[in-house]
Amino acid sequence: MRKWLIITGTILFILVGCRNQDETKDEGQKEETPTEETENDSDKKDAHSSVQHMDYKAEVAPDFSAEELTKDPAGNWVTNGGNIYNGRYSPLEKIDTSNVKNLKVEWVTSLGSGSEFKYSGEATPLVYDGVMFTITGANVVQALDAKTGEIIWEYTPQIADGLDTVCCGWTSRGVALGNGLVFVGLLDARLIALDQKTGELVWETQVAEWEKGYTITSAPLFYDGKVYTGIAGGEYGIRGFLAAYDAEMGRELWRTYTLPAPGEEGSETWPEDSNSAITGGAPIWQTPAVDPELGMIYFATGNTSPDLDGSNREGDNLYSDSVLALDADTGDYQWHFQEVHHDIWDMDPANPVVLFDVEMDGQMKKGIAQAGKTGWVYILDRTNGEPLIGIEEKPVPQDDRQKTSPTQPFPIGDNFVPQSISEEDIKNDLPEDFEGKVGDMFTPFWDEPMTIKPSPQGGANWPPSAYNPNTEMFYVLGNDNYFAYAHYAEDEANKFVEGKEWIGSIWQPVENTPSRGTVTAIDIKTNKIVWQKNWDSIAYSGILTTKGNLVFTGHNDGRIIAYDATTGDQVWEFMTDAGANAPPITYEVDGKQYISIFSAGNTLAGSKHGDKIYTFSLEGEYASLEDIPEDAINTSPVHKDTDNDNSEGVTESDGGEVAEQGLKLYENNCLACHGAEGVGGHNGPNIENATLSDEELVEQIKKGGGSMPKFEDILSEEEINALVEYLKTLMNKDE
Questions:
Q1: 235: closest CA among 168, 316, 286?
Q2: Sign of the torsion formed by the C-alpha atoms of 108, 109, 110 and 113
Q3: 231 in helix, strand or coil?
Q4: Coil/strand/helix, residue 605
Q5: Each residue of 637-684: pLDDT tens digit?
Q6: I need a labelling partner for 363 at 20 to 30 A (CA). Which of 193, 305, 392, 605 fits?
């Protein structure tokens, strides 16, 4: 069995798995006391850098009313999901299926940071009164003229030295806006507010301790004078929570934990003698949604900890893997629906929830949809959490050692990715020397490798879905690939150490097998597929839909693509210079409609990295990359030609000067998947187990393999050799 791990680990040198999850709360899991004091002293502000390049001539955002925040985004795009329903639908229709073929580049801006391989570009820009606000994977925040792309101001944080607890690539999914402030969650678990006109720091609050595994990758949400943020870190044995902060000062107003304390409702779904209330996980990876009329805030929670080992956490393990509703004003529990009981496969819901209103059976229904890693869309009544379309509890395979749940929820409707491995799949997709077992979704595993679908990448992962009220269709991206699981009770991964990854078992993609993606339109009234497009790579960006009957999304190969929202016919595409792994948006300035996307690549998608925002219009000038003159690209005066590494190294090398150079390359290219010192990091195999020669290491780094990207076009020969020298110090630790 160890041989299986070592062989697979050496071939898949940089695992590009995907873990994106959410956090929620539990009834009674609310703290009235704030966390640490808001930090406004001059010493803290000195650690931040704000530079203004142009006068800010636009209006500042107001203290948005509920009506303004629930309105479909037309001229502006003021929340991460377009509005606080998270629907990513725009009523703009000047660009439609009849003329979208005429879209050309209006402007391009090189943001100048976050292009190293450890970073991922996943941000949704915001737009208000002709100004765009965006953030890179390096947490650099910038305000741009939305008509020209010229940079108005830039803010650079000082990320905590030694930060090494960020799962799955350094990223930010966006910022929030309101009351003249830009709100930002930082990777080291701080929440900050910047002056909208200058980018200067106004306040700063420490939400949690990154040293214990907490981080923030989601965009905050501004609503009713509050800023809401969840916390990530389910792989580190943290206690998930959602917290609300006063938008003016950063003072914590309430905190609701997603794990029940002993004696609280839900605690009976965990063993009595466990530390589950403190180390059980259930993080929050995405931006919540709000229904002001009902007074509820909604989100989904992530995986349990330890993620893949259920042997010591008998029960359903609430409120992990659940959609949760809280009172938006107080944080009090309202309802929950658990999508996966006692999860041991990392099938937690990572996709943002979407609120919608639709007529069903002659009555208007208030719905909420969540696209799961399971490959199903869970469609619920958002007033009470009951299914709007049936969801049945069905028996599933059992393994007493894993304390598996006897049943799992099966939504009525279509799955948008395969949930089993057929004989044809084995023949066509699996290598001839494949010797492991295969199973269906919910098949348990123990000490022999078990390959199932969907994988931890999904189904649906973090890339946001969208709902179009005109077509009454829900649009979702899906992933279809092969992952193998195995359990080792004696493995170091099964031992909890604060601040260290705690997975509990072994998982990794099956080498030499295909990864595929889907773009799917689902009838919101029936949960049935209307149309589906199949890709030859995972779908890892997000979706925008418009009244112009269009669906826009990005592709790993760099394309932004438009489909007819009704039929699924492709009607336009444009090839950018890096992986288009962020959700597109649309907005209007002076009567002109624009489409924008952040094209910067993604660590876990293994796509080419970059640093540019591309913005298109019907009056745009450039039809292809080759048409764009270099001097027409806006560039950052601050970050141009810099590596923007705002934190110090987290490891030390004892292999000499060349190995020290390799350590820096490791941190920027490998750490996101392998963790500090390569000890079986964030979905990447343990490098200490590798037995490759120098020549084999060089070849593996250059050519990649399986889910590992190739680095021959990213790193020079000298850099690859330096990286090999550092990797040898990790592989030879015990010699």
A1: 168
A2: negative
A3: coil
A4: coil
A5: 998 744 444 443 334 445 567 667 777 777 667 766 665 555 444 455
A6: 392
- Alpha carbons 539 and 552: distance in angstroms, whole number: 13
Contact 184, 139 (CB under 8 A): yes
**How buried is residue 662: exposed, middle or buried, by Cβ count under 10 Å (0-12/13-18/19+)?**
buried
Contact 15, 481 (CB under 8 A): no
Q: How far apart are CA 555 and CA 533, in angstroms?
A: 12
Cα 81 to Cα 44, 174, 176, 276, 279, distances in angstroms: 31, 10, 10, 32, 30
Going from the C-alpha of 691 to that of each of 14, 422, 506, 721, the distances in angstroms are: 15, 34, 19, 17
Tell me how far apart the alpha carbons of residues 368 and 354 are, in angstroms, rounded to a whole number. 6
Residue of 307, 346, 425, 491 with catalytic role: 346
At a CB cut-off of 8 Å and minimum separation 6, what does 252 contact? Answer: 33, 34, 35, 205, 243, 244, 245, 246
What pLDDT digit, counting tens, does each position of 55-106 carry?
999 999 999 999 999 999 999 999 999 999 999 999 999 999 999 999 999 9
Phi then psi for residue 498, to 5 deg, are -55, 130
Residue 346 is among the residues annotated as catalytic for this protein: yes
Write the DSSP string, 500-560. S----SEEEEPTT---EEEEEEEETTTTEEEEEEEESS---S-EEEETTTEEEEE-TTSEE
What radius of gyration, in Å, describes the C-alpha atoms of the chain? 24
Coil, helix or strand for 264?
coil
Residue 716 makes CB contacts below 8 A (sequence gap 6+) with: none
What distance in Å separates the CA atoms of residue 69 and residue 82, rounded to the nearest whole number? 9
Q: Which residues pair with 543 in a beta bridge?
A: 553
Q: Which residues contact 528 (CB under 8 A, 6 or more apart)?
A: 413, 414, 522
Tell me what pLDDT residue 241 has. 98
pTM, two decimals, is 0.90
What is the distance between the alpha carbons of residues 483 and 396, in angstroms, rounded to a whole number?
19
Question: Any idea how long the chain is?
Answer: 735
435: exposed, middle or buried (Cβ count in 10 Å: 0-12, 13-18, 19+): exposed
